[in-house]
Specification:
The chain is of the alpha/beta class. The chain has 4 domains: 10-314, Rossmann fold (3-Layer(aba) Sandwich); 316-343, no CATH class; 365-532, Rossmann fold; 550-678, Rossmann fold (3-Layer(aba) Sandwich), CATH 3.40.50.920. 41% of the residues lie in helices and 12% in strands. The strands form 5 sheets. The chain has a 6-stranded parallel β-sheet with strand order 11-8-12-13-15-14, sandwiched between helices. The protein has a 5-stranded parallel β-sheet with strand order 1-2-3-7-6, with helices on both faces. It starts with 9 loop residues before the first helix and ends with a helix.
């Protein structure tokens, strides 16, 4: 290849040749996949893992490692090949199992499944957006653990590298996140943009003609453009120089690399077919001829070349040794921070104090959540978060803290290590950024918006659940109770839609004290969860009259038992629990005795043993009524054939909360009448 400044020898170039053939073989054997990008980007990925990425294959979770995000997850072989070459545990046999059940090489990279995979990618745009969160977390952790050092020189400082595609940059989520990255001046973020102008339908100019470089310069990124070589291969020498330069930048960097997909396949290169289809037996053979590899050999990586590539492990050992010395010195120098780090790494919590709310005053659950956040923030320095431009409504601001912003922003309360994140009106990116912060692993993040806008961020929420990340979504204005803003802002189907996501907890507290214990349980569980909170004031229950709010951890509990023999059970969530209690009192006057069950989280309830669930909802009590200001879809499981749901099966309207609840029949009278009609 004639490149001399890379410190590559012939063996390095030979590894790259065989890597390209390996990608073609894996897809051909699987019968489907995405060979083209993996072939054309093999040199870039190799350069990154061998010369630029600080990592330790013997310890994929090393705290100080650089992060690599393959945003174009369909090109999973790009990553798997480097994990194999670097010694993360993948072997040739794993490539023969590409895309097969239970293999370490699934179609798209999966976090927690394959060692060395930092993030689940596949939905385009999500990877690069999540990487913004990783970079933000890197800066926050710097301030948390070593604020006296210059960013980039600290023990825990690291760089986030992203490899993304045209498709990633077409998705709106990437525009949201990259715009914020520029505002935040995330110097620890480098994105390599594979500009091959090919997607499934053909030339990307069918739908994507904007000047990407100008767009990113407008975001206040550094942009470096690199054309391919005359023969069509990527220009490794210039890419190497660009990667080195990006590490010294005071801004995020976009390295725009012109490439030819599937290079050097003689016929498939620069075609849409090579993007998402096997090349075919003849084309694979012809490609190997171009590469100087025997066409009748498959899944080959000669032992001496593999041994050469795995020297990266020895280099990592040397880097790790130097780092360990610095780490030990840091622990001696800052014992309190070392103790904090130890607690965070062990996923431990101190004994947390939460506010207790008096029955004397009504309070919206969003306001109660805000008070809980203040209390928790005093005890958990790793806790930070914000809102999509709705902080005052969501009550998400840590009032004692500064804003997470570079000092150059000019804002009075700006601090590069502030705890208040201003996401802007970017809900989808906000969710992805939360995922990135969680993946960093050394802080806890939350973020808020209105519940109705959870639709905008559903893809990110789904990935939270898929990766099992401890992300907390604060969704306020959770019903028609928000009032006059009307049906565009009133969530109807959203509670049920979120409950449909596997491994995701939907928590809708009934009063302020349920909010406090819900926060506590969410932190304890370290699972993805959404807090659904009211705009309108709600009564704070007299806990001498009803069961303790500590029972929130069980998901559903007997809030107030029937005064006599149980006729029916009323199950309610959120603002509708108070309605259920009122109906109970009204029915008791008619000698009709009902049990009221508060069910803030059905997912937590389902996790309880069968004995407890039977105690709360005994099977012999068939007359059951649910009350929730949303569609009834999830409730029929608990109601059976003889139960009935008081719900909303239509959109709301613009009026006060009180008027709307009366208009749509979500009242204590309706509950009472429904029970009597079923008797």
């Amino acid at each position: 290849m004639g490149v001399t400044s890379l410190n590559f020898d012939q063996q390095d170039f030979d590894v790259i040749r065989y890597s390209r053939a390996l990608a073609a073989d894996a897809v051909q054997t699987a019968g489907n996949g995405h060979p083209g990008t993996a072939m054309s980007l093999a040199p870039i990925a190799y350069l990154l893992f061998q010369r630029h990425l600080r990592h330790d294959p013997s310890d994929p979770a090393w705290l100080a490692r650089d992060r690599f995000v393959l945003s174009c997850g369909h090109s999973s072989l790009t990553l798997y090949t480097q994990l194999f070459l670097s010694g993360y545990g993948l072997e040739i046999s794993d490539f023969k199992e590409f895309r097969k059940l239970n293999s370490l090489t699934p179609g798209h990279p999966e976090f927690g499944h394959t060692p060395g995979v930092e993030i689940t990618t596949g939905p385009l745009g999500a990877g690069i957006s999540t990487a913004v969160g990783m970079a933000m977390a890197g800066r926050y952790v710097h301030g948390l653990l070593e604020p006296e050092t210059t960013m980039g020189d600290g023990v825990f400082d690291h760089h986030v590298y992203v490899l993304c595609s045209d498709g990633d940059l077409q998705e709106g989520i990437s525009a949201e996140a990259c715009s914020l990255a520029g505002t935040q001046q995330l110097e620890n973020l480098t994105v390599i943009y594979d500009d091959n102008r090919i997607s499934i339908e053909g030339d990307t100019h069918l739908a994507f003609t904007e000047d990407v470089s100008a767009r990113f310069r407008a975001y206040d990124w550094d942009v470096i453009e690199i054309d391919h070589l005359a023969n069509g291969d990527v220009d490794l020498e210039k890419i190497d120089a660009a990667l080195t330069k990006s590490r010294r930048s005071s801004k995020p960097t976009l390295i725009r690399v012109k490439s030819i997909i599937a290079w050097p396949a003689p016929n498939a290169r620069n075609t849409a077919k090579s993007h998402g289809s096997a090349l075919g037996v003849d084309e694979v053979a012809a490609t190997k001829v171009e590469l100087g590899i025997p066409s009748d050999e498959f899944f080959q990586m000669p032992d001496h070349l593999l041994a050469h590539a795995r020297k990266v492990k020895a280099r990592a050992t040397d880097v790790r040794k130097d780092w360990e010395n610095s780490f030990q010195a840091w622990k001696v120098r800052t014992p309190e921070r070392a103790e904090l780090l130890d607690r965070i790494v062990k996923n431990e919590l101190p004994k947390l104090r939460i506010p207790e709310f008096s029955k004397d005053k009504e309070i919206a659950t969003r306001a109660a959540s805000g008070k809980v956040i203040q209390a928790l923030a005093e005890q958990l320095p790793e806790l930070w978060g914000g809102s999509a431009d709705l902080a005052d409504s969501n009550n998400t601001t840590i009032e004692s803290s500064t804003s997470f912003l570079p000092l150059t922003s000019g804002f009075e309360k700006a601090s590069p290590y502030g705890r208040v994140i201003h996401f802007g009106i970017r809900e989808h990116a906000m969710g992805a950024i939360l995922n990135g912060i969680a993946l960093n692993g050394l802080s806890k993040a939350y973020a808020g918006t209105f519940l109705v806008f959870s639709d905008y961020m559903r893809g990110s929420v789904r990935l939270s659940a898929l990766m099992d990340l401890p992300v907390t979504y604060v969704w306020t204005h959770d019903s028609i109770g928000l009032g006059e803003d009307g049906p565009t802002h009133q969530p109807i189907e959203h509670i049920s839609a979120l409950r449909a996501i596997p491994n995701f907890s939907v928590v809708r507290p009934a009063d302020a004290n349920e909010v406090a214990y819900a926060w506590l349980e969410i932190l304890k569980q370290r699972k993805p969860a959404g807090l659904l909170l009211s705009r309108q004031n709600l009564p704070v229950f007299d806990r001498e009259d009803v069961a303790s709010a500590e029972n929130v951890s069980k998901g559903a509990y007997i809030l107030k038992e029937a005064a006599g023999n149980i006729t029916a059970i009323v199950i309610a969530t959120g603002s509708e629990v108070a309605i259920a209690l009122k109906a109970q009192a009204e029915l008791a006057l008619e000698d009709i005795h009902v049990r009221v069950v508060s069910a803030p989280c059905l997912e937590w309830f389902e996790a309880q043993d069968a004995k407890y669930r039977e105690e709360v909802l005994p099977s012999n009590i068939k007359l059951r009524v649910s009350v929730e200001a949303g569609v009834s879809q999830p409730w029929h499981k608990y109601l059976g054939f003889e139960g009935s749901a008081i719900s909303l099966e239509h959109f709301g309207a613009s009026a006060s909360a009180q008027v709307l609840y009366e208009k749509f029949g979500i009242t204590s009278d309706q509950v009472s009448n429904r029970i009597k009609s079923l008797m």
